[in-house]
Amino acid sequence: MKPPASIESRQVAFTGTAAEFSPKVQENANEWLNSIVVLEGVVTSKDENGITLNNRIYCQFSTRQKIVVAEQTLQIKGRFIGYDDLLNELKLDQCIIQK
Amino acid sequence: MKKALFFLFFSVSISGFSQTYFTRTGTTNFKASVTAFEPVEATNKSTTVILKTTTGDLAAQLFMTAFQFRVALMQEHFNENYMDSNRHPKAVFRGKLAGFNFTEVSIQKEYNLSGTLTIRGVKKEINTTATVTLDGDKIILSSKFTVAPQDFNIAIPKIVRKKIAENIHITLNYELVEKK
Question: Taking a contact as any Cβ pair under 8 Å apart, which residues of chain A between 52 and 81 contact chain B?
Fold first, then answer.
């Protein structure tokens, strides 16, 4: 009984900036569901479980990450889980800071 | 006059703040296990929840693909065969904590929670109770209720029917912080 694949072992569907990714996903969010993406963006806010890039993309960490400061530019890898219309933002989970 | 204006402004700004509490990472769990078979259960730790503390209005939303199972194949079947997650990526709940009054919640209080749960585009009325606990600057909301696969037109194939419970137990645990 295999556990679900970790994001490290899965193929990356998109690599680029958070600014490029947002409009792409807006066109058809369902097409990107469950895709692994690598995004570079500016940290605009943070909470206990994750960070927001470019005021638009919430990235949830699976484990606590080292301290992230606001306004920092980061590259993160994560899984796109959907467009959250309650908060008007895109959501990733299982995120890892790449650099 | 100046003083009166100041008080007016002050009271308006107080009522203008502290109205919305929320989380992006609430925990929603379901259990559809049958004793003696492989447990059928999964947890979603990415539930978005918004509570209006002035009215008790509650909105919650989760993505089906974010349910984590222990077994990959079970997660795949859940999304592809049962939930049709590509066509219906979300479950949405809109409801109300009856008679919710923020000033009344001292440490812990129970409220009736009712509303509409939409899964796979099918709506079902939910009536349950929820416990609201104040923990420092957080509001912790927890609740549980039961649904059945047929409530949402989910057909369980005969071959696995014995392994999936007729009643699915859903538990919620949401830690809300003030939305600034």
Answer: 58, 60, 81
Q: Which CATH superfamily is domain A12-97 in?
A: Nucleic acid-binding proteins (2.40.50.140)
Q: Looking at the partner chain, which of B59, B66, B87 has a beta carbon nearest the beta carbon of A86?
A: B59
Task: pLDDT band for B71, please (50, 70, 90 cuts).
Answer: very high
* Closest Cβ–Cβ partner in B59, B72, B87 for A4: B72
The length of chain A, given as a count of residues = 99
- Is the backbone of residue B153 left (phi > 0), alpha (psi -120 to 50) or beta? left
Mean pLDDT of B141-155: 96
* Residues with pLDDT less than 50, chain A: none
Mutate to test the interface with B, among A62, A86, A90 (most CBs of B within 10 A): A86
Q: What's the pLDDT at B13?
A: 47
Domains and CATH numbers, chain B: 19-178 (2.40.128.110)
Kindly state the DSSP code that residue B165 receives in the 8-state scheme. Answer: -
